[in-house]
Amino acid sequence: MRWAFLSLTLMVTLTACRKDPGAGPPVDGSGPVPCVPLPEQPPQGWNLWPVQPYLWAPRWNPDDPNEFLVLQHNPDLTSKLWRYHLITQELDLVIEANFLKPAEWGADGWILINTGWPANIFKIKANGDSLTQLTFDGNKFGGAWSYDFQKIVYYHMHNSTRVMDKDGVFLQELPNGGGYNPGFSTWSHPLYIANPASGLYIVDPYEGIPMFLIFAPDIGNYSGCAFVNDLDHIVWAYNDGLHNTSISTTQTVVIEETCDSEAYHDVDCHRMNNK
C-alpha cells in the first residue's frame, strides 16, 4: 500500500517503504537515513526552519491515481502549484499565487485554491484555465470538497465554519465548527470530517459533536489525514510516524516509524487504489 506524503525535511517521497525502527523518511528516494532525535525541547518549543524553496501538500487527482498536485513554497512567500504524472513524468504549472492553505483537487479537473489577501477561495481547472472566484468578502480559509464533490467546507473568521455548493452559493453554517480545521481536515467520507488535532477524531459536520478515535490533548504536531477507500480507516501523520486508525475498532497500526527530527508532514490517500 502506498500514499503521497511530505516529510519535515520537505522532500517529496512517493512510496511508504518499510524501514528499520528508528529510520527516518527517504531523502531524494535514496533510502533510509538515520533518525537522530532532537535533544530535550526548550521551554518555548522548537522552531521549524525549512530550506527554501520547499515542497508541501501533495494531493491526488481523484480521477487519475497516477497524477497529483504539489505546492512549491518560495522565499518571497509565493507558491507554485504543480501537477505531476507518474507514468508520463509530465510536470506542469497550474498557477503561481500566495497560497494560504493547501490546494484540493476535486472532480472533473477542478481544483480549490485559497490565496492572497483579503483571503478568498477560488477554483481553477488543472490546466490553469477558468479561474473562478467563489467567495468575495474575505477572511475565508481552507476549502475542502465533500465526498461527492458537490459541496465545499471552509472556515470564516470569528469562529464560523460554512458550507457552499461547488459554484460558491452559501448553504449553511455548521454547528461547533463541524470538525473542520483548514489545511489539516478532510471531508472525503460520506458521513464524517476527520481532524488530526488533540489526537484524531471524526465529526458528523451537521451535528458538530466530535468522536475521538485517539484522545491526546497535550500532544501537538499532528499534520494531516486522509480516509482510506474502505471508509473505515484513516491514515494520519504525526512526528513519530505514519499511522492507520480504524473508525469501527479505534485500533491504530504504525505504517512507518519516524522521530521528531525526521517526520512526515502531510498525507493523502487515493480513493481508487489506496495509493
Q: Rg, please?
A: 18 Å
Order of helices and strands: EEEEEEEEEEEEEEEEEEEEEEEE
Structural class by SSE content = mainly beta
Strands of the biggest beta sheet: in what spatial order? 5-6-7-8
What is the β-strand count?
Answer: 24
Work out the helicity level.
under 10%
Count of helices?
0
Mean pLDDT: 86
Shape: globular
List segments where confidence is low: pLDDT < 50 over at least 5 consecutive residues. 5-31
Distance between the termini: 6 Å
Biggest sheet descriptor: 4 strands, antiparallel
Amount of beta strand? over 45%
List keywords for this structure.
4-stranded antiparallel sheet, mainly beta, 275 residues, single chain, 24 strands, 0% helix
Structure report:
The protein is mainly beta. Helices cover 0% and strands 45% of the residues. The chain has no helices and 24 strands. The chain has a 4-stranded antiparallel beta sheet with strand order 5-6-7-8, with no helix packed on it. It is globular.
Layout of SSEs?
Blueprint: E1 4-7, E2 12-13, E3 23-24, E4 33-34, E5 54-61, E6 64-73, E7 79-85, E8 91-97, E9 99-105, E10 110-115, E11 120-125, E12 132-133, E13 140-145, E14 151-156, E15 160-165, E16 170-173, E17 193-195, E18 199-203, E19 210-215, E20 225-227, E21 233-238, E22 241-246, E23 252-257, E24 264-268
Antiparallel strand pairs: 1-2, 1-24, 3-4, 5-6, 6-7, 7-8, 9-10, 10-11, 11-12, 13-14, 14-15, 15-16, 17-18, 18-19, 20-21, 21-22, 22-23
